[in-house]
Design brief:
single chain; 119 residues; mainly alpha
Length: 119
């Protein structure tokens, strides 16, 4: 008789949020992109919560990257190579300025409580 494993999990499927979340924290972008450009020069949304209102956050993130004037291998690698590092650097306090992140956080907590991982 085959063994059946019970797997408990929570699925997270961001659609447009990934890029909107990635460019909400100018300090993280500066550190990861290796630049000293200010938020305005990077084209970051002011105030930060406007990041969710942008129709094409991927293009805006690309424009912020382009503003750093990448050359050579850095330019060829493009933004996708930096998303992991951005995810590690972005401030949760900055992300909590975004309604979509607050919704994710709340729904994740509810799911984890339902799975008895949180009280």
């Amino acid at each position: 008789m085959p063994m059946v494993l019970a797997i408990r999990c929570v699925a997270v499927v961001p659609i447009r949020e990934t890029e909107a979340w990635a460019w909400v924290d100018g300090d993280a972008l500066r550190q990861v992109f290796g630049t000293s450009l200010d938020d305005r020069a990077l084209g970051l949304p002011q105030p930060a919560h406007r990041a969710e209102a942008v129709n094409d956050p991927k293009q805006c993130l690309a424009m912020a990257f382009a503003a750093t004037a990448p050359t050579g291998a850095r330019r060829r690698r493009g933004i996708s190579d930096y998303l992991g590092a951005l995810g590690e650097q972005i401030s949760l306090d900055r992300l909590r300025l975004l309604e979509s992140f607050l919704t994710l956080e709340l729904e994740l907590k509810v799911a984890l409580r339902g799975l008895n991982f949180l009280r």
